[in-house]
Amino acid sequence: MFLIQSVIRNHKVKIQSVLKSHTVKMTIINQIAKYHKVSHVIFDMDGLLLETEQIYEKIIRDLAASYGKPYPWEVRMRILGTTERRTCEIAVEELGLPCTVDEFQKQFSQSCLDNLGNCNLMNGAERIVRHFHNNNVPFCLATSSSQESVVVKTSNYPALFKLFHHKVCGSTDPDVKQGKPAPDIFLVACQRFPGNIKPEDCLVFEDAPNGCRAAKLAGMQVVMVPDSHVTEKQKEDATVVLKSLLHFKPEEFGLPPFADINEE
Fold first, then answer.
1. How many CB atoms are located within 10 Å of the residue 238 CB?
2. Cα–Cα distances in Å, from 80 out to 74, 192, 204, 253?
3. Is the C or the N end of the chain the one with fewer CB within 10 Å?
4. Smallest Cα–Cα separation from 215: which of 226, 231, 204?
């Protein structure tokens, strides 16, 4: 009798072990399968690849203070990811500044050129860009910044930003009729890849709620790496939300995985 009970217990343990192993494997499979396979990548720049958002926040806060106005967080969220012109329109309107949009934009543009030339790369930015380049995954830049601003901000990293197939600068590109959260910039970026690339073939990397909404409206999946102050509600348009680019797993979207632990 004791022998029979022992055999039954051992059998149950084996079954539980098999079921646990099967559950783990199915979880991994389902995790990989839940995202649509892509072939091309589109990167935002500010706050995703480059540490510029805090600089922008200080620029606008200082300009607002010069008019005796505060720069509250909710206004910053509305501005995040927009074109330079739209940024100035929102600032003047929402902050009640006693100046025209043109006057504010002149001050804003000059301050940006003066302060954005020494920004740092975000964690994982160079790693992921070089990984895609080394594995022949086509990728481009889709930023709301002007072309002049992009040149200034990327001046310390010319070799890295030369790896991008093309760059779409929303503030100065005539084909981008409306800025984020409209989908124009991502659709233009997609169209400029060689071949008949469809929006669903592209994976967008973004940090801003406006950018995530734009990507979703374009029919693209989007990986969001948000600021810590972004609310759960503002993350709803993201396909997946990460703490940093270092946590991205390319294989979940059918892209080449990082080769070894040193890349991770």
1. 23
2. 10, 25, 16, 27
3. N
4. 204
DSSP letter for each residue of 124-161: THHHHHHHHHHTT--EEEEESS-HHHHHHHTTT-HHHH
Task: Quick: pLDDT tens for 224-233.
Answer: 999 888 889 9
Residue 99 DSSP class: S
Place of tokens 């003066």: 114
CA 141, CA 169: separation in Å to the nearest integer? 8
User: How many Cβ atoms are within 10 Å of 246's Cβ, its own excluded?
Assistant: 15
**Mean pLDDT (the chain, rounded):** 87
For the record, the structure tokens of 193 come out as 């890849």
How confident is residue 117, by pLDDT bands cut at 50, 70 and 90? confident
DSSP type of residue 222? E
Q: Is 96 left (phi over 0), alpha (psi -120 to 50) or beta?
A: left
Q: Clarify whether 46 is annotated catalytic.
A: yes
Q: Which two tokens stand for residue 132?
A: 């895609």
46, 201, 207, 237: which is the annotated catalytic residue? 46
Q: pLDDT tens for residues 164-175? A: 999 999 999 999
- d(CA 82, CA 170) in angstroms, rounded, equals 9
Greatest alpha-carbon pair distance for the chain in Å reads 92
Share of the chain above pLDDT 70, in %: 85
Rounded CA separation 80/117 (Å): 19
Of the pLDDT bands very low, low, confident and very high (cuts 50, 70, 90), residue 101 is very high
